[in-house]
Amino acid sequence: MFLLVLFSGFFNLMQCVPQYVFVNESKTWAEAQRYCRDKYTDLAIIENEQQTVQLLDTVNDDSIDLAWIGLYDDLNSWKWTLEDSDFFKEGENDFRNWYSPGPSNYGGQSVCVYVHTFSGIWYTTFCSETHPFICYDGRKNASATYVFIYQSKTWTEAQSYCREHHTDLISIRNEIENQKIPYLSQNDYDHVVWIGLYRTRSWSDQSNSSFTYWSTWQPDTAGSCTVVSFSDSEKWADENCNYAFPFICYSALASSRQYHFVNESKTWTEAQRYCRQNYTDLATIDNMEDMNSLVNTVNGSYSGSAWIGLYDDVNSWRWSLEDNDFYQEGERDFRNWYHEPDNSGGKELCVYMVSDGKWYDISCDNTLTFVCYDGRENATNSYIGIYDRKTWSEARRYCRDHYTDLANVRNQTENQRILEILGGNGGWIGLYRNRVWSNNQFTSYQNWRPQIHWLQEHMETIVNEYGYQRCTAVSFQYSGRWTDEICVYNMPFFCYSSKFTHFV
Questions:
Q1: Domain coverage including residue 321
Q2: 424 and 346, same domain (yes or no)
Q3: Nearest to residue 25, comparing CAs of 324, 412, 235, 301?
């Protein structure tokens, strides 16, 4: 328990609007769920198109292809549509009469249960099929407990009909009730009918959101978890829950930041020093709500550009394979650059090896051949060359699906082996980086000005003197969108401070 001391005079809890936090650590779905529950609220839930856009805004990494969200497929989570707990005695809620070998969910969609009126055996199918059905009538003045309806309806339509005219679709509590089914049809209907058992995909936090955003032909597997596919317009796809991907959490807490506009022209580094001395740090922005709060700080009184805390650290490289046991001391830091990295154009966040074994940074959207690393116990070769051309994120996904990860290079010997596998041609390796915030927090929200390009004016002079280090500014000329600027430019800036302090 902690005490909140309010600096701003008041604190309002955010109501109903999830705040998404992108976590660029590769974990299984269960590990991601545990992480989110420990540090935030849960894995991300998505209830509408607007939240899909909001979630997308948190991922500021061109190399990310997939990320877990909180939707999963639990084949054991069968439910009766009748939720009256008084209807079921102990254990009756769990009665089942499945056909052998039992239910599956090929296609991964919501499935409902029908019973064969001759055998009494239960089967599963898509809820959108049409069949007759049986209602349960639990009203005090009901003349019959069960009512057979010969009209063919989808399961959802049948449920609505039964709830409107009776109580609900039939729930079957034991073998005796199940054996009554043929007699309810008066033995003249040898076919199938809906009953009230169904199974839907579930959200990690038990949300009842029915919103879906599946990619074409998805979902396509049973017993799986859901990812957002950033290479497929943020559509959803099934993946094995034991695969490791980055993930997105949501938090129900309001932002703890208060923004301060400082109308003094300074370089990015000078602005950072000023903010750390007088507030907390240069502005960090987690989401659209933070962005709106920052913009409202100037309230239309300023129309130029101002520094925020995001900068492009060309030395923040890391390997796709994050397993600490894979690296001995110093091996994470092996590099074989050729006058690189230079981050030409400001978007060179991934690394490829050229024909002489030297490394270059390049945009992750290029398509190249690549080398996978196979660290499995039964692997016959540690490195496997893949000669189909893919983007860096597509290559990483392929390697993780079929082997362990993209090739990670620990020393000159491995560098030579990978070069030989590439056959003297260039290809992706597993080194990449992200932009970072001044306070070292990783948040993936982005608000770039569309099709912004680095200004080439005086570039040669600036590059020779200062290198390619670049920092981020908010441009009020472009409605608060972000632009890349040379860090030694002078401009006003935004700091942030905490609205409240935690005392444990």
A1: 317-433
A2: yes
A3: 324
